[in-house]
């Protein structure tokens, strides 16, 4: 008969693998909800079930940890090379990694507050004055069926000549060229891709 410790160790390892799979499945389900519904639907989903946002964020972090490059780190490097006086709006800020990594004033917005820095709101209606920020950021946060409204909101809060930074998974777009053309129609000019 095998000693009890190895059996309980195998049991704990099996349980951990099963929990990881369940987290992955729930993350994929929530991710699908965020991409196929409007930002208003997403806000309602997480108002009704705030724990789902925490679960989503854990799944998101688990996914991003596997990537060779974290897009938020590229945005941090970009901002560190710019004046600290630039005011930034981080749409879908998550745990405020960007805000805690730069000297700039960063307005942090998300559907649920993972940090006291976060202002909870719908990304299509952020509580900022028109033309009040120099840089608007969507780092793996450009979600929802009402992207035109959300990007229009970013355009509203950006100062004339401001910068919109979008970091997104390429597979998110069926046609990158069509997305860039739509961005032009919203008043943006592509500087680099």
Automatic annotation (TrEMBL):
The keyword Membrane is annotated on this UniProt entry: no
MF-aspect GO terms: methyltransferase activity
Compartmental location: Nucleus, Nucleolus
GO terms classed as biological process: cellular response to glucose starvation; methylation; rDNA heterochromatin formation; regulation of transcription by glucose; rRNA processing
E.C. numbers: 2.1.1.-
Claim: Iron is one of the keywords in the record: no
Gene Ontology CC entries for this record: chromatin silencing complex; nucleolus; rDNA heterochromatin
Primary localisation category: nucleus
Keyword tags: Chromatin regulator, Methyltransferase, Nucleus, Repressor, rRNA processing, S-adenosyl-L-methionine, Transcription, Transcription regulation, Transferase
InterPro entries named in the record: RRP8, RRP8_N, SAM-dependent_MTases_sf
Family: Belongs to the methyltransferase superfamily. RRP8 family.
Function noted in UniProt: Essential component of the eNoSC (energy-dependent nucleolar silencing) complex, a complex that mediates silencing of rDNA in response to intracellular energy status and acts by recruiting histone-modifying enzymes. The eNoSC complex is able to sense the energy status of cell: upon glucose starvation, elevation of NAD(+)/NADP(+) ratio activates SIRT1, leading to histone H3 deacetylation followed by dimethylation of H3 at 'Lys-9' (H3K9me2) by SUV39H1 and the formation of silent chromatin in the rDNA locus. In the complex, RRP8 binds to H3K9me2 and probably acts as a methyltransferase.
Assembly description: Component of the eNoSC complex, composed of SIRT1, SUV39H1 and RRP8.
Annotated protein name in UniProt: Ribosomal RNA-processing protein 8
Source organism of the structure: Notiomystis cincta
């Amino acid at each position: 008969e095998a000693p009890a410790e190895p059996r309980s160790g195998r049991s704990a390892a099996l349980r951990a693998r099963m929990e990881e799979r369940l987290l992955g499945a729930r993350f994929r389900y929530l991710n699908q909800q965020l991409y196929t519904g409007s930002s208003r639907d997403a806000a309602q989903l997480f108002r009704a079930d705030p724990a789902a946002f925490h679960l989503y964020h854990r799944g998101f972090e688990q996914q991003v940890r596997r990537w060779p490059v974290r897009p938020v780190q590229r945005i941090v490097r970009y901002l560190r090379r710019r004046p600290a006086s630039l005011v930034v709006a981080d749409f879908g800020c998550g745990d405020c990694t960007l805000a805690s990594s730069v000297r700039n004033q960063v307005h942090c917005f998300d559907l649920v507050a993972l940090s006291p820095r976060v202002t909870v709101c719908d990304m299509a209606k952020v509580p900022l004055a028109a033309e009040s920020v120099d840089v608007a950021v969507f780092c793996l946060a450009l979600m929802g069926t009402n992207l035109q409204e959300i990007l229009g909101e970013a355009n509203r809060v950006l100062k004339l000549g401001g910068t919109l930074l979008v970091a997104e998974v390429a597979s998110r777009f069926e046609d990158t060229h069509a997305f860039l053309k739509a961005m032009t129609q919203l008043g943006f000019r592509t500087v680099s891709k």
